[in-house]
Amino acid sequence: MILRQLLLPPLHSLTPPLLHPLCATALWANGGAASRRHLSTDGPAPQPVIGQESVEVLGHSYPRDDFTNVTSGILAKVGRNLHNQSHHPLWLIKERIKAHFYSAYIGRWGNPLFSVHDNLSPVVTVEQNFDSLLIPPDHPSRKRGDNYYLNRSTMLRAHTSAHQKELVRSGLDAFLLAGDVYRRDEIDASHYPVFHQMEGVRLFSNHELFSKVQDGEDLSLFEVGGRRSPQKQETHTLEAVKLLEFDLKRTLTRLVSQLFGGDLEVRWVDCYFPFTHPSFEMEVRFQGDWMEVLGCGVMEQELLNSAGAGNKLGWAFGLGLERLAMVLYSIPDIRLFWSQDERFLKQFRVTDVQQPVCFQPLSKYPPLLNDISFWLPESRESFTENDFYELVRSIGGDLVEKVSLVDEFTHPKTGRRSQCYRITYRHMERTLTQQEVRLIHEQIERSAETELGVQGRY
């Protein structure tokens, strides 16, 4: 997580980034009775509409303002809920995680300890997405260039943790949450503006945490006058945090061992997330290399206090479903998750979610490369790389495999700066022609000048 990681997608970091897997997907569960009719995205969703004055999505209308930057292409993904489509690879990963928690953690009455919530609306308030998680007002993860805003107060969630506070407030002590999240980002085989996260939260009362400890009745979760250190928060006792940390790491080690199978070498790396302390990233040794799998940590007590659970301590973790699916099923390109090609989908129709699957690649169609060079606007603040990526994505869609910055130049006399990007076009299901790609590329050139204020050098 660190907010760009705190909001992370698949691959080179494992979830993508605003905060990172945990950060990105860290802390919440079911909304209980909390207005499920409003929160649920089950059932056919009304078609989104971006009008002159408002944006309509999931049956609700939101007024536009100077912060509105969501595109029709992105809104078309809202309601697809790939993680809930039976036998989709993301669904398989989600179900495997659910099955593990259902079988390994049983409540006192024989029921699963963890509840699962995977149908909460991705439309959230800025307060939910940032303030409720103690993310400071000046944190870079809030930037308009990194997120999809409906308006200044409403956005598409950048991480599933946006629901954490409301769900803890509803009285939940142990839950898993899965959902689609949205971030403006670079374009390559492991990044996509929509990806899916799953996270878990577990809260403990004084009795629950110390019940199996000798003389546990003499121990306490909290202390007065304590100081924050790398090992703990100021209000927590060291013995409570160490017990919580042990439970968290044992829980997650069991989870990844179940997912990856066999003896698995695991290591923990200290890190920073705004809503947990101490915080850790888990790495596993996979095919000879260390690979980050998830983020986790002890929940900030201020967060629990504000959610009405100030008498408890809690841990949270978060991971990216695409990241795991790409690794476990050998899926080479994140765009494939959105494919409706039967050759892709049928490979995951297994009778048992635990059944191993090794994706057999579809025919590899040749790429077409086209460069675009332009002078940047004089005001550097008026142009960001994410703006250009988003423009390319909105015009080229999933025909664009990758966008790379290949050259930068500053004029020695005028000081003007130019950039050259290489756009790789490749269809996942057929061969593209240079003629059809050229039409798309020319539209990108024209739109870059009119919408981003650049001056073409082509």
Please provide a written account of the structure.
It is a single chain. This protein is α+β, with helices and mostly antiparallel strands and 458 residues long. The chain has helices spanning 21-25, 36-39, 72-75, 89-104, 126-129, 164-169, 206-210, 238-260, 301-306, 321-328, 342-345, 385-396, 434-452, and strands at residues 49-50, 54-57, 60-63, 115-117, 123-125, 149-151, 154-156, 174-182, 194-204, 266-273, 276-286, 289-299, 313-320, 368-375, 400-410, 417-425, 455-456. A seven-stranded mixed beta sheet has the order 4-8-9-13-12-11-10. The relative contact order is 0.15.
Architecture blueprint of SSEs:
Blueprint: H1 21-25, H2 36-39, E1 49-50, E2 54-57, E3 60-63, H3 72-75, H4 89-104, E4 115-117, E5 123-125, H5 126-129, E6 149-151, E7 154-156, H6 164-169, E8 174-182, E9 194-204, H7 206-210, H8 238-260, E10 266-273, E11 276-286, E12 289-299, H9 301-306, E13 313-320, H10 321-328, H11 342-345, E14 368-375, H12 385-396, E15 400-410, E16 417-425, H13 434-452, E17 455-456
Parallel strand pairs: 4-8
Antiparallel strand pairs: 1-2, 2-3, 5-7, 6-7, 8-9, 9-13, 10-11, 11-12, 12-13, 14-16, 14-17, 15-16
Helix pairs in contact: 4-10, 12-13
